[in-house]
Amino acid sequence: MQYLSNSALIQKYNIPGPRYTSYPTVPFWDKEGIKESDWEETVKRSFNESNTQEGISLYIHMPYCESLCTFCACHKHITKQHTVEDTYIDTVLKEWKLYVDLLDDKPSIAEIHLGGGTPTFFSSANLKRMIEGILEDATLHETYDFSFEAHPNETTEEQLQTLFDLGFNRTSFGIQDYDPTVQKAINRIQTYETVEKINNMSRKIGFGSISHDIIFGLPHQNKENIKTTIANTVALRPDRIAYYSYAHVPWIKGVGQRGFDENDLPKDEYKRELYELGKQLFFEAGYEEIGMDHFSLPTDSLYKAMKNKKLHRNFMGYTAGKTKLMIGLGMSSISDSWYSFAQNEKRVEDYVNRVNEGKLPVFRGHLLSAEDLIVRQHILNLMCNLETSWENDEMKLDTMPEILKRLEEMEEDKLIEVYDNRLAVKESARMFVRNVCMAFDLRLAENQPEGKIFSMTI
Asked: What is the pLDDT of residue 342?
């Protein structure tokens, strides 16, 4: 048998597909949504099963940004009017109170992550008011981990010190690219000196883990400016690096992702060469590959979690710890009770109005079936450990013969190994893990989308 080259494999398998921060993926949630009673019941069930041992996670969406980055696919609200801060913080605290009143005991918080938008859009005083307000109604888990995302241009020493004093130990800086032409195209202009200053300031204050986010596949990117961006990044020695593929989905995100000519985007094989180049440079600098699109130093908790097979993946990406219950607060946040998902209203005004009515601001969700839960675990195993098994009865699916049939071609192409009710993705085929997951995705198989809803897998 003649085996395909790496280039041919990329062309063959580079198709639209989910990123699998959840299963089912959001486009395949039940169209009728989730009943409020079902969502509340599964939250309480998950909380009662896990709060004492592992605690709960909070994701807080901070949607405001002062300017629009044209690569961004997040739910955000662009404004320079900081008067919006007070109302938003008030609403987040009211929403948290609704959850606290729902639960049967005081929540033990194991994780808080502030995402956005730009969390450091908010003043130190408001960040302090929000976190202290949340912790008033909770206890801290013995291994708690607090983190936040930050824009290097819009983060001050006062904000860093305030968050550190509140228990935050990890920060993530959105770098994306250092090349001036690329920065202009994506409207994200920040100098190396700015990043260096805020990075070193974080170290001096005492943050134990610093992450830098870089994106490959941006307009005007080439191998030379990727080399420069990565050289600048590893010079600052962040503990973690997220090396994301740019997801070009303007049919979903509208005008924000049409701020440049699509012909300026690196295409297909060349885009993948940018990733492979970056990956090699990270290896040479002493970083280890984690899951998909992530790298860390061997001293970081993410690497240790991977080695101990405790790596977890959720709507926040890869995490070093797992909690069964993740409550999302704020506009557009997605919550995960393990047994169900729920997403908040996506417009700030609708979110505020629902909370002020005394209602959880959920506008859509999905109650997982018994089959969903099994598929979810298989996909989670693959995304975190590059392997899964159905040796135990609780991991068996009636549809496994169909799944294995869909995987035959990948097995023939030497991307995976299937044996003794087990499947392993070869290390050299890590880039194709999303394609492997798609074979397990029963809802995708049953309901092939008619239009564009996903970015490319590779």
From this structure: 97
The residue segments making up the domain with residue 9 are 1-24+369-458
Which pTM does this prediction carry?
A: 0.93
Chain CA centroid to CA 402, Å: 30
pLDDT tens digits, 275-308: 999 999 999 999 999 988 899 999 999 999 999 9
Mean pLDDT confidence for 47-55? 95
Extract the tokens encoding 19. Answer: 């990123």
Neighbours of 393 (CB within 10 A): 6
Do both 289 and 346 map to the same domain?
yes
CB 198 within 8 A of CB 150: yes
Asked if residue 363 and residue 408 are part of one domain, the reply reads no
